[in-house]
Amino acid sequence: DADVTQTPRNRITKTGKRIMLECSQTKGHDRMYWYRQDPGLGLRLIYYSFDVKDINKGEISDGYSVSRQAQAKFSLSLESAIPNQTALYFCATQRDDTQYFGPGTRLTVL
Amino acid sequence: AQSVTQPDIHITVSEGASLELRCNYSYGATPYLFWYVQSPGQGLQLLLKYFSGDTLVQGIKGFEAEFKRSQSSFNLRKPSVHWSDAAEYFCAVEGGSYIPTFGRGTSLIVHP
Lengths: 110, 112
Prior knowledge:
The complex is a heterodimer. By secondary structure, chain A is an all-beta fold. Chain A contains no helices and eleven strands. Chain A has strands spanning about 5, 10-15, 20-25, 30-40, 40-50, 55, 65-70, 75-80, 85-95, 100, 105-110. In chain A, the strands form two sheets. In chain A, strands 2, 4, 5, 6, 9, 10 and 11 form a seven-stranded mixed sheet that branches. Chain A has a four-stranded antiparallel sheet with strand order 1-3-8-7, with no helix packed on it. Chain A is globular, with a radius of gyration of 13 Å. Chain B is mostly beta strands. Chain B has strands spanning about 5, 10-15, 20, 25, 30-40, 45-50, 55-60, 65-70, 75-80, 85-95, 100, 105-110. The radius of gyration of chain B is 13 Å and the shape is globular. The model of chain B has no long low-confidence stretch (mean pLDDT about 95). At the A-B interface, β5, β9 and β10 of A face β5 and β6 of B.
């Protein structure tokens, strides 16, 4: 079984809808991250959490929120989706400065 | 602030040829440096990392990278490329904050 899982893997939604992307990990790592990937822009950090009670904004947090429900679960929400949030979203954990990525969620906002 | 530049958006090589992917970083002290690979439809996987010590680092899948402080570079190399190496490659830098900065990626195309 994968150590870092993301659900859903693909999602198509409409402008204005609220959507949640979920991430679960079985690695036992405290640090978790959400990134978005856009062609030609690499990975950009949305939010990160160093433990259950620690949530921090990344470079592009506007329009997003997160919830760290447990050490193993870190969810990303788009309160009111807009088309320029169409992207590939990755969750990652970290230990010893190495990041471990989930398979990604491809989100399309129409 | 830390930053990473990957000058090449695409690199095309023939199978069996050697490969070098360029990475330049900006950071005020000795950085932690990483190369990750993203195969189509998958998340990123660590190839190798440099923290300190020997400036030539060996990684998985036959890759190596060399840290050159004078050139602020951490180029990735492989002596003989296989078709399965076709992927997107990301260089990343971190200064011990647990928050890496990724480059924009280099897409490797392998011709038979």
